């Protein structure tokens, strides 16, 4: 089937999800600006805050960048006071990266107003609606996690 014809047959929900993804991407850019960072730097701080300390190679892998780029990124974040390097607990040749408390607090302060708005929308749903929407979002998240990955 012709790709344009296939897209024309998509469910309206697909386009609503596309719009949500676009709004989310725009929000990320605005939040990065508010944090006076680029999106990759903000994402790195988020990953370290969310997943805890990790090495530069793991951070590079999660960001989808090369290790040389990660080194430059970490140098920049460390100089700005957003990331700390500490010796790895078991391997003296490696270092562990940690988001500073200040970076985490700043990120939370920037993101909290938007999170409150999302929470407000979620709380406006009836319990029955919330169950359906949550299940849909969980299935959608799983599908998006699979998209573009090798089989």
From TrEMBL:
Pfam families: MarR
Molecular functions per Gene Ontology: DNA binding; DNA-binding transcription factor activity
InterPro entries: HTH_MarR-typ, MarR/SlyA-like, WH-like_DNA-bd_sf, WH_DNA-bd_sf
Source taxon at top rank: Bacteria
Coiled-coil blocks: none
One BP term from GO: response to stress
Keyword field contains Kinase: no
Record-annotated HTH marR-type domain positions: 13-142
Gene3D superfamilies for this protein: Winged helix-like DNA-binding domain superfamily/Winged helix DNA-binding domain
Keywords, in A-Z order: DNA-binding
Name this polypeptide is given: DNA-binding MarR family transcriptional regulator
Organism, scientific name: Actinomycetospora corticicola
């Amino acid at each position: 089937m012709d790709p344009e014809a296939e897209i024309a047959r998509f469910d309206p929900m697909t386009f609503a999800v596309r719009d949500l993804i676009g709004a989310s991407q725009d929000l990320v850019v605005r939040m990065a600006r508010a944090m006076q960072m680029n999106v990759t730097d903000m994402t790195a701080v988020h990953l370290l805050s969310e997943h805890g300390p990790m090495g530069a190679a793991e951070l590079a892998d999660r960001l989808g960048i090369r290790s040389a780029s990660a080194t430059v990124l970490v140098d920049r974040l460390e100089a700005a006071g957003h990331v700390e390097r500490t010796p790895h607990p078991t391997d003296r040749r490696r270092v562990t990266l940690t988001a500073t408390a200040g970076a985490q607090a700043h990120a939370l302060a920037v993101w909290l107003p938007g999170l409150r708005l999302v929470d407000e929308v979620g709380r406006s749903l009836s319990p029955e609606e919330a169950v359906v929407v949550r299940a849909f979002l969980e299935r959608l998240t799983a599908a998006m996690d699979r998209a573009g990955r090798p089989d």
